[in-house]
Design brief:
Elements lengths: L1 E11 L4 E10 L4 E8 L7 H20 L5 E6 L2 H7 L11 H16 L3 E6 L6 H19 L5
Parallel strand pairs: 1-4, 4-5
Antiparallel strand pairs: 1-2, 2-3
Length: 151
């Protein structure tokens, strides 16, 4: 079965509080599962959140769809994520390095299990489900931590 997953990470400020989200759909567009969660810490960078979203998304696909997913199209609105996972760019040094290395290993492990994975860039405007969930969560975190401030 072909599955499509869009992921997104959000932080406020950068670095700051963070959240991640995913939306998994069938090839025909039917949403199978979508969710978001907060990230621990208050010094999370945007790039770190984006890679954490990848890791969580892959974890969910493997947990719930491992036996039926033979082909996965993975979408991110982060060019850094897409280019690193497609091995077009090297992993640099930064707050995201550990998460990027882990994400790259997980993508490789997915491929080694005789399944195909394609990683594609998607404009933020077309990544609405994951973007909206991650954004709402980070706004909620920021409001709780900063005493009512929203953006």
């Amino acid at each position: 079965m072909e599955l499509h997953i869009a992921v997104d990470g959000a932080v406020s400020p950068n670095p700051g509080f963070g959240s991640v989200a995913y939306c998994i759909k069938r090839k025909d567009g039917k949403v199978l599962r979508k969710a978001g969660r907060r990230l621990e810490g208050d010094q999370i960078t945007n790039n770190q959140a984006e890679f954490e979203a990848v890791l969580w998304g892959l974890e969910v696909v493997q947990e719930y769809y491992n036996k039926i997913c033979a082909y996965l199209i993975f979408y991110s609105n982060s060019q850094l994520v897409v280019n690193i996972l497609n091995r077009e760019w090297n992993i640099g040094q930064g707050g995201y390095t550990k998460a990027a290395v882990s994400a790259l290993k997980e993508v490789q492990a997915f491929k080694e299990n005789l399944r195909e994975i394609e990683v594609r860039w998607i404009p933020r405007e077309r990544n609405t489900e994951a973007n909206d969930i991650a954004g709402a969560l980070v706004r909620q975190i920021h409001q709780e931590k900063q005493g009512g401030w929203t953006f």
